Amino acid sequence: MDYANDPELNGKYLGTITKDFAAVSDTLQEASAQIRKRDISKYPVFIFARQEVPLGTLLVNADEAGLEWHVFASYLELLVQQGIVGTEGIEAFQQTYKDADEFCCLFVVDEEFTNFVFIPYPED
């Protein structure tokens, strides 16, 4: 799996993901900081899915927040345990992973598109 931003992330996804990301970016940034601060992982990952998925912990319920995407908090090691990232892909993932203070690592899960995407946090 390619862990860099996918150029195939078309406008259909980009628009709704960006809109929902803007609404929850402060929450995600704080969760990312806590995951790293508590030494849970150096590689927080937030799953964006239109339906509930058995990945990570539900952080933002789309229905309750008026969003299109549910957001689940996870991290690299858990995604390896769940078979999303193969053990042979750990090093590539770590090398591709961007500065977690500046970028949010999303794992977008939908019927037509499943991939990792890095989105910069909004400037304060």
UniProtKB/TrEMBL annotation:
Domain of life: Bacteria
Name recorded for this polypeptide: Uncharacterized protein
UniProt organism field: Hymenobacter citatus
